[in-house]
Specification:
By secondary structure, this protein is of the alpha+beta class. The protein has two domains: 239 residues, BirA Bifunctional Protein, domain 2; 94 residues, Rossmann fold. The chain is built from 15 helices and 16 strands. Strand 9 and strand 10 form a beta hairpin. The longest helix is centred in the first third of the chain and has 20 residues. The relative contact order is 0.12.
């Protein structure tokens, strides 16, 4: 019989690991809501054209990495490779711009890219992101970087550097891209095949290349900072000044362009010095709403790769310590156990049990293996005496507790606080 295994690039997140994920998700949500962000939920499946138009037809994501197929009606659809394009689609479709001047959203969920699996990179991966739509001030850029930095500090992730750059507005980019293309044509014979195509289609994308030879050729290319207009320079200077004043660790990287075409002005990535990997990134996309059929609405946002954050977070799983294991020996005990379970549910006390007929010694081995700190034992002798045994598995000691006092005693031992 065939034994099924997960597809390449996919992963199972098992119960022992999920607690750490939930801790990270909870902190990102709590911090975002403190800053006034509200959750938005978007479909996993969208029209392929949404991402082609939103992300850019010449990006690696669209050209190489999207999970795309035709549905039963022949429509070209794709699993979402990122969140921003879908957020903008929902923003325009629901005309949220007519309801509020500034919209702050956060989202969380799986994304999909048919990419080569490697450390911290999966074909199904999880992103937490925030978007601010309606604000053009550089202080919105500063806010999301500040929010991200504070959240990572809350998770006790300190060894990080923000790489930042400015791509300028449309006018700045036109000037720079024209010059960049001319410079790249001079060395095109030495570029990889992908970059030769990029030079013609979208020269900025050469900065995405991982080829070491191409990287070395880009070192002599003029910086985009030399092409910024006055407004874009002021915008970037205000952001840098904010980072300085708030002691956020950053470095200006003039080769940073990010892998999506919609960025304007600010772009940034967060690098974990411990893992030497980007764990988050974002930037401003002032033209995207308009390019996708909506009005002109400036916007900025970031996305965090939760898969990459998980290894950086210290976590001790205390789930079993907060869970009481219930041992019911015999039919009478099982029937009476339901009454105990009802009380535990009302008191919001976590429990675990097993209804199979086993010897007490076997049950105790199970509880010990499960690493439950506490268990109760109820058999016919205890029922006759009107007591229940409460056992501390760590210390190997137990006590008899009156039946009507057992739930309060469990609450005390597990340090359960009822809200």
């Amino acid at each position: 019989m065939e034994i099924f295994t997960k597809l390449r690039g996919m992963r199972d997140i098992l119960p022992g690991e999920v607690g750490k994920w939930q801790k990270i998700e909870k902190i990102f949500i709590e911090m975002s809501e403190l800053f006034g962000y509200r959750e938005i939920r978007i479909p996993i499946l969208e029209s392929k054209d949404l991402f082609v138009r939103g992300i850019g037809s010449s990006t690696d994501i669209v050209m190489k990495e999207m999970y795309e197929f035709k549905d039963k009606k022949g429509r070209e659809v794709a699993l979402r490779p990122e969140g921003t394009a879908s957020i903008v689609r929902a923003y325009i479709e629901n005309q949220i711009y007519n309801k509020e001047k500034i919209s702050r959203f956060y989202y969380y969920g799986p994304m999909f890219r048919y990419d080569r699996p490697q450390k911290g990179r999966y074909r199904q991966f999880y992103q937490f992101g925030v978007e601010v739509l309606g604000g053009k001030s550089p202080y919105f850029d500063s806010e999301i970087i500040f929010l991200l930095n504070e959240t990572l500090k809350k998770l006790e992730i300190f060894d990080i550097t923000f790489l930042i750059n400015s791509l300028g507005c449309k006018n700045c980019k036109v000037l720079y891209v024209s010059n960049l293309k001319n410079q790249l044509i001079k060395v095109s014979d030495y570029l990889c095949n992908d970059c030769k195509v990029r030079v013609e289609k979208n020269p900025l994308r050469v900065f995405d290349c991982k080829n070491e030879n191409c990287k070395s050729l880009l070192k002599n290319i003029p910086s985009i900072m030399n092409y910024l207009c006055k407004n874009c320079k002021v915008h970037f200077d205000i952001l840098v000044n904010f980072l300085d004043k708030n002691t956020i660790n950053y470095k200006v990287d003039n080769c940073l362009v990010r892998g999506l075409d919609y960025y304007t002005k600010t772009v940034f990535e967060v690098i974990s010095e411990r893992e030497n990997i980007a764990i988050a990134g974002g930037g401003r996309y002032d033209d995207l709403v308009n390019d996708m059929g909506g009005p002109y609405i400036p916007a900025v946002g970031f996305a965090v790769g939760i898969d990459r954050v998980v290894p950086l977070v210290e976590y001790k799983d205390k789930e079993k310590e907060r869970t009481i294991y219930l041992i019911f020996l015999g039919e009478k005990a099982k029937a009476k156990g339901i009454e105990i379970i009802k009380k535990l549910i009302n008191m919001k006390i976590n429990f675990e049990t097993d209804y199979e007929d086993r010897k007490l010694s076997e049950y105790l081995r199970i509880v010990d293996k499960n690493k439950n700190k506490w268990c109760i034992i109820l058999g016919e002798n205890e029922i006759e005496k009107g007591v229940i045994i409460l056992r501390n598995m760590e210390k190997g000691i137990q006590e008899e507790v009156k039946e009507d006092e057992i739930v309060e005693k469990i609450k005390e031992k597990l340090n359960v606080k009822i809200s």
